[in-house]
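Everyone, carefully examine this protein record:
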Amino acid sequence: MLRHLERHRTDRVGWLRAAVLGANDGIVSVAGLVVGVAASGATPSTILVTGVAGLVAGAMSMAAGEYVSVQSQADTEAAALALETRELREMPDGELAELTQIYVARGLEPALARQVAEQLTAHDALASHMRDKLGITETLRARPVQAALASAGAFTVGALLPIATTLLAPPDRVAMVTTAATLVGLLLSGGLAARVGGAPVLRGAWRVGFWGAMAMAAAALVGRLFHVSA
């Protein structure tokens, strides 16, 4: 008997979103700091310290922001599940009827919908209501710690690119080299994220690269407006 194997990527949604956001933010924000400060005429040591400070502050900010936002989602899910548990205990018949109507609305005949609702309720009533009534699944449930770690780690990895160019590029070409390296890094990260998520690679790469280029241009403009030669 042949088995039909399918490769879905929805189980990656939680950490992938946080990782992509963190990596892109790490590259763009720290590169923006480096380019802006370099364009202002600051010394190489000042540019490097600015980049490192941006890495530390940004990683902590990303971790905290992801944790707080995803924890809020987790709290909402927990409250909804607590309410559903109480309703299943106090009003089982009403909840069964509600589940039946959900399946009727999805296209099942009333008698079949009732049979499906009864069997699923007997198997795991809370899981059935969590999935079909509340739209909460184990695969897509909020995981605050996972999101925070993925975002902070990806931010750090992304931020290392502009910091490396600060160390390796000639002092008078830090802004140019950082901008070029950043755009290449963004194209690669956008393409990789698209590939992992199952989306078109070129579209993902160019989308991230375009907005990165806009960020670099804005940072360079601000740096030139406040030129302060050391």
User: Anything to note?
Assistant: DSSP finds seven helices and no strands in the chain. Residues 190 and 207 are 7 Å apart (CA to CA). The longest helix spans residues 44-90.
